[in-house]
Amino acid sequence: MRYVTWLFRAFLFLILLGLAMKNDQPVTLRYFFGYEWQTSLVVIVLLFFVAGAIVGMLSVLGNLLRQHREIAALKRELRMKNKLAEAEETARVPTQPT
C-alpha cells in the first residue's frame, strides 16, 4: 500500500509541476486605489489555494474544539462512574470475621 501511495504522490507532483511550468506567464492583479501586483500565474493560484485551505481549517477549528471539550467531559464522567462502581463493589463484599 505504501508503494501505491508514493506512486500517487509522485504522479500528482509531476502533474502539478507540469501545470506550473506551462502557466508561468506574468499576470497583473489590480487592487483598489490603483495598487497592482505583477507576478506569475502559478504564484497567484498557489496563494489563493493556501488562503482557501487556511480559511477551511479555521472554519473547522470551532467544531473540533467543541468536540474536544465534549470528549474530555465524557471521559471525566466515565472515570467518576467507574470510581463509584468500584466503591459500591467494595462496600457490598462482606468481610469474614477471623
Could you say which structural class the secondary elements and strand pairing correspond to? mainly alpha
- Percentage beta strand: 5-15%
Nearest-angstrom radius of gyration? 29 Å
Question: Order of strands across the biggest sheet?
Answer: 1-2
Order of helices and strands: HEEH
Q: How many strand elements?
A: 2
Number of separate helices: 2
Q: So what's the overall shape?
A: elongated
- Tally of individual domains: 1
Distance between termini? 64 Å
Task: Explain the overall architecture.
- With 98 residues, the protein is mainly α.
- The protein has one domain (19-90).
- Helices cover 74% and strands 10% of the residues.
- The protein has helices at 2-22, 41-92; strands at residues 26-30, 36-40.
Concise summary:
74% of the residues lie in helices and 10% in strands. The chain has 98 residues and is mainly alpha-helical.
Which helices and strands occur, and which strands form pairs?
Layout: H1 2-22, E1 26-30, E2 36-40, H2 41-92
Antiparallel strand pairs: 1-2
Pick out its properties.
98 residues; mainly alpha; elongated
